[in-house]
Write a structure and sequence with these properties.
The chain is mainly alpha-helical. 62% of the residues lie in helices and 10% in strands.
């Protein structure tokens, strides 16, 4: 392990990531596009191409799981689990600068935690899934350059 004062430790989708500074040019092509703002992730990653790839791939793989879990928890009236899943998904959305999605997830988390306005959950989850899918497309374009 490097002895460096520039360590970053953070969590996404239940995994912990440890990052130190490395050299690469990949980060230079990351920009703000549409609903996605990768500035925070870019700051954490420095110029570490491998690290960025791993975090992006992990996030993209988690999107269907987040959405399916939220739908299932809503369908089964497991609102405590729905609140926790929305919280986990929200943490990932923050990392990718998905502000509108973060706000929707925060709203779902808070409502489900209190079991308030239960009738709107399925519609909100549908909007969240649409936003996640749009963000995934943008992130793929930003990270592959196509």
């Amino acid at each position: 392990m490097e002895n460096n004062n520039n360590y970053h430790l953070f969590f996404i989708s239940g995994k912990s990531y440890y990052k130190t500074s490395k050299g690469s040019n990949l980060v230079k092509k990351y920009l703000v596009q549409g609903m996605t703002n990768l500035n925070y992730l870019k700051e954490i990653a420095g110029n570490d191409e491998e690290f960025l790839h791993e975090v992006v791939e992990s996030f993209l793989l988690q999107i269907p799981q987040f959405c399916n879990n939220m739908k299932n928890y809503d369908h089964c009236c497991q609102y405590d689990l729905l609140s926790k899943e929305a919280h986990t998904a929200k943490s990932s959305a923050v990392l990718f600068g998905l502000d509108d999605l973060t706000d929707m997830l925060r709203r779902l988390q808070n409502l489900a935690e209190k079991q308030e306005m239960v009738g709107i959950y399925s519609g909100l989850i549908e909007r969240i899934e649409e936003s996640f899918n749009k963000a995934a497309e943008e992130i793929r374009k930003l990270t592959t350059g196509s």
